[in-house]
Design brief:
The strands form two sheets. A four-stranded mixed sheet has the order 1-4-3-2, with helices on one face. It has four helices and eight strands. With 158 residues, it is of the alpha/beta class. The radius of gyration is 18 Å and the shape is globular. 25% of the residues lie in helices and 34% in strands.
Length: 158
């Protein structure tokens, strides 16, 4: 008896970021140290480059691979940065930020309480990807968030 194939694998529903890095083996190790990521899958080509890997950070999956510029798969550094950020909710944003910095990340914005009820920080990993770390501090209505946002804009905030 054969098991029925599920068109969407367990744990892989929804949009999954797929990032390109210049050293995928180092990236997997970095994400493990910085965010507690667990490696699930890795395919290595004959030259030792990682053609595809999957890691899990909590229940979320992140797919990644080494750059293959000849095939149009380039890292953010080859473009001068990435227009995409990865958002990660964590139990303790300050602790996770310190952990990521100790692992080699660069703080772009320190942890601060935000008008929308989260304490958030922004960092860049060693591969040029931007991460937004947040811890929910307040449950707010859309109306309250909009009111706070309008107050910030009235004060001339960017």
């Amino acid at each position: 008896m054969t098991e029925q194939v599920k068109p969407i694998p367990v744990g892989r529903a929804g949009a999954i970021p797929y990032i390109c890095v210049d050293d995928a083996a180092f990236a997997i190790a970095f994400y493990g140290r910085a965010f507690g990521a667990l490696e699930v899958l890795r395919f290595t080509d004959p030259d030792g480059k990682i053609g595809h890997a999957e890691i899990e950070i909590g229940p979320a999956c992140l797919m990644l691979a080494d750059a293959y510029p000849d095939h149009g798969f380039k890292s953010p550094k080859s473009y001068g940065g990435s227009p995409v950020s990865i958002h990660l909710f964590v139990e303790d944003v300050d602790g996770m930020l310190a952990r990521a910095v100790a692992a080699g990340a660069t703080v772009l914005q320190p942890a601060e309480d935000q008008f929308y009820g989260d304490r958030s920080a922004k960092l860049e990993d060693p591969f040029g990807h931007i991460w937004l770390l947040s811890t929910r501090k307040e449950n707010l209505t859309m109306e309250e968030m909009q009111k706070r946002f309008a107050a910030l804009m009235a004060e001339g905030a960017p």
